[in-house]
Design goal:
427 residues, alpha/beta, Transcription Regulator spoIIAA, 3 domains, 12 helices, 33% helix, 25% strand, binds S-adenosylmethionine
Length: 427
């Protein structure tokens, strides 16, 4: 990248490996394309979104063959995109898929994983989850939309080469981020088939258990919270090691944490406000042949339910908090801090002495040092120890220079009751 093309501050950011250039970073915007495109700019290929403040997003890691002599400088059609990047992309897709299959799956699991995670897997604006032979693709930026026919074909080539048959491709265009790109928000489609009829639940093996997934239309996210896979396992392992007996899984969805906890013999109360998610949880308990009477399923608002438990003096040894993000933008941070503090405070108050809280937060706006303070405030007057902090599972990698992609943390915290409090509780 030559100095003078972008501001000195953006130059530093670019040197660190950050994959975005905003409109304000670029000094000669007039030369940028006015159509969604791939553009060779400052020794890198970028995907250009002409209507977005996030104007350029880096495509791929730096490639030696691209550095020296690009044959083209602006690509606007899917055909050009396929002929220029096709070979590299099929190789990249195949290698990424293979690496993730090897690192993520447990013995006897079906292929259920995040194949491509946008910037972190070098394809900004495209997320692809695999549920055996169905690909669920989220398209969030204008250039990915412009090149989608080429990208879909290349994904199909890589998938077919690995598994011997073509995948079904479900396309999601429902992210609010699309509006900033000048794109419409529309219903999910299977290829050209819009208004495709909804499909029955898919029964797949994932993370060593059987799950019903609702893929079309997906209920939340792309159908499952694949990013929490390792935290589901870790919470259950820790509960078993510490000999914990009772757990509350607050914002349980379809039971990502609940199922492994039931399997480790804990009595679980699973709380969510979504009736649909709770019905699927019920089926997941049955299909894994877990004792039904060990799980109390409650449809309720997390805050109201915890307030009620506190008022009636109920306690649990392990409490999982996994609410949706309270932070939609930087402006909503103060209100979000307040919400997280209250929720964590209620949970900590309801823990038995030495009980464990698994407090999950999914927003890149809420940085770890900020959440640390939230936990500190929530703990008062209790004392806590932070035991472990984990990110998402390894099919959701994080680029070190891209904090915006570092969005999920699970804080494993123990409530420590000092002897004075203990005496009060016993008397
Ligand atoms: C991040 S997801 C939970 C994922 C789940 N723990 C897992 O690992 O699979 C958040 C869940 O919170 C639920 N939810 C949203 N607002 C809620 C509220 N106020 N009270 C209870 N549940 C809520 C949603 O229905 C959703 O299932």
């Amino acid at each position: 990248m030559k100095k003078g093309l972008i501001t000195p501050k953006a130059f530093q950011k670019w040197q660190s490996g950050h994959p975005w250039l905003c409109a304000d970073d670029i000094l000669h915007k007039k030369n940028l394309p006015h159509r969604p495109s791939a553009v060779f700019f400052g020794e890198n290929w970028w995907l250009c979104s002409p209507k977005s403040f996030l104007r350029l997003r880096r495509l791929g890691p730096p490639q030696p063959q691209w550095m020296k002599n690009p044959r083209l400088e602006i690509i606007t059609s899917a055909d050009q995109f396929r002929s220029y990047f096709g070979e590299w992309l099929v190789q990249h897709f195949s290698e990424t898929l293979e690496k993730k299959i090897r690192t993520v799956l447990k013995p006897n699991d079906d292929i259920v994983l995040r194949w491509l995670f946008s910037e972190a897997d070098w394809l900004p604006g495209l997320t692809v989850d695999v549920f055996k032979n169905t690909l669920i693709c989220q398209i969030t930026t204008a250039p990915i939309e412009a090149f989608w026919f080429a990208l879909r074909e290349l994904l199909e080539i890589a998938f077919t080469a690995r598994f011997g048959s073509k995948p079904q491709v479900l396309e999601l265009r429902n992210s609010p981020a699309r509006k900033k790109e000048g794109l419409e928000i529309i219903a999910p489609t299977f290829g050209e088939i819009t208004e495709a009829p909804s499909r029955p639940l898919e029964l797949l093996r994932w993370n060593s258990y059987n799950w019903h997934f609702q893929l079309h239309p997906p209920t939340q996210k792309t159908g499952a919270y694949l990013d929490q896979r390792d935290n589901h396992t870790r919470a259950a392992e820790l509960a078993k090691t510490l000999g914990l007996k009772t757990a509350w899984d607050i914002c349980c969805y379809q039971g990502g944490f609940t199922i492994p906890l039931l399997d480790r013999g804990l009595a679980v109360t699973a709380v969510d406000q979504s009736q649909n998610a709770l019905e699927i949880l019920q089926k997941n308990i049955q299909i894994n042949a877990l004792p039904k009477n060990h799980c109390n399923i409650v449809k309720a608002d997390a805050f109201d339910w915890l307030r009620g438990q506190l008022a009636s003096g109920q306690k649990a040894d392990l409490i999982i908090l996994d609410p949706p993000s309270f932070v939609k933008s930087r402006e909503s941070l103060p209100a979000a801090r307040k919400g997280y503090t209250e929720l964590n405070h209620l949970a900590l108050e309801c823990l038995t002495p030495q009980g464990v809280l698994v407090s999950c937060v999914c927003s890149h706006h809420m940085r770890p040092d900020d959440y640390h303070k939230v936990l500190e405030a929530a703990a008062t007057p209790n004392k806590i120890q932070i035991l472990e902090v984990h990110g998402p599972s390894v099919d959701h990698p994080v680029l070190p220079a891209f904090p915006e992609g570092d969005y999920l943390h699970a804080w494993f915290v123990r409530r420590v009751v000092d002897s004075e409090q203990m005496n009060c509780q016993m008397s």
